[in-house]
Design a protein that fits this description.
This protein is of the alpha+beta class and 196 residues long. The chain contains four helices and eight strands, in the order βαβαβαβββββα.
């Protein structure tokens, strides 16, 4: 079972938040969980966990992102990457669905997922990473709201027409669908009889 919560207040993401029990110590979320918050993003090269990016001396910057931090217990890194891809697929679908609910113009077309990233208008909408800790698998996914300062061509939810009040419902919708998928996967594993 995956619990979740959205937390108000301006909390920056610097990369050091991607650590075991951050969700428990900061937000009180117990066990496998996803927590969301909005805030700036500034991850310096030395805090990147992606070796491909570190070797290129990359960094992650955005004036404002919708951040998701996940921690999952009892799973392997490969399962964590699969969960990440599922999470990002759900996020893309929910952005499109929310755009219809809040009357966002359809001018941005479809949200495209390439691997663990989302793109709109041919520009990067998100960042995402999964890594392993000694006790869990950790995920960060950030969806640009205002991508100012990004080192790559980027787009944000603001440019796509989302207003500030639409961010929390979007985050909750993404997390609720992800938790429902996790419950469905658990049941799919439990409901079958073995074959020999």
């Amino acid at each position: 079972m995956i619990t979740s919560g959205f937390f108000k207040g301006d909390l920056a993401y610097t990369g050091v938040e991607l650590r075991p029990h951050f969700l428990l110590s900061r937000f009180g979320l117990k066990g496998s969980a996803v927590g969301a918050f909005a805030g700036p993003c500034s991850v310096k090269t030395e805090h990147l966990v992606d070796w491909e990016d570190r070797l290129e001396n990359d960094r992650i910057e955005a004036a404002l992102m919708l951040h998701f931090i996940g921690e999952f217990f009892g799973v392997l890194l490969r399962e964590g990457v699969l969960m990440q891809r599922l999470f990002m697929s759900i996020a893309g679908e929910e952005i499109e669905r929310a755009a219809g609910r809040v009357s966002v113009p359809a001018r941005f077309g479809r949200i495209e997922r390439r691997g663990d990233d989302l793109f709109a208008l041919g520009r990067k909408l998100s960042v995402s990473i999964v890594t392993a800790s000694p006790v869990s698998v950790l995920m960060h996914a950030g969806i640009n709201i205002d991508p100012s300062g990004a080192p790559v061509p980027a787009v944000g939810l603001g440019e796509l027409g989302f207003e500030t009040g639409a961010i929390e419902p979007l985050a909750r919708g993404i997390m609720e669908r992800f938790a429902a998928e996790a419950r469905s996967i658990d049941w799919a594993c439990a409901k079958v009889r073995p074959v020999v």
